[in-house]
Design goal:
Layout (H helix, E strand, L loop, with lengths): L4 H23 L7 H30 L2 H18 L1
Helix pairs in contact: 1-2
């Protein structure tokens, strides 16, 4: 499993963009007329991001890891999900 440097940069930038959008939405009043369009745009972006990771990136990664490594990775991802929730 190898990620090209340009692909790794794109994925990193994507994660930064997700965090930026969450930061913006958390600080924008829900009464702001831009809130709903901003939230909808973020929802579409995050949906694409999730599908890319789940359907393309993670299957490749899991395919090269041992059962123990996959178990550890799964536990780490679950913990990150709990932190985000």
């Amino acid at each position: 499993f190898a990620v090209k440097p340009t692909e790794a940069k794109r994925l990193s930038d994507d994660h930064v963009e997700n965090k930026r959008a969450l930061y913006l939405l958390r600080r924008m009043p829900a009464s702001d007329p831009d809130w709903l369009p901003t939230a909808e745009a973020f929802s579409h972006h995050i949906d694409h991001h999730i599908h890319e990771e789940e359907d393309e990136i993670f299957p490749l990664l899991r395919g090269v890891l041992s059962a123990d490594e996959n178990k550890t990775l799964g536990a780490m991802l679950n913990w990150e999900g709990f932190k985000a929730a």
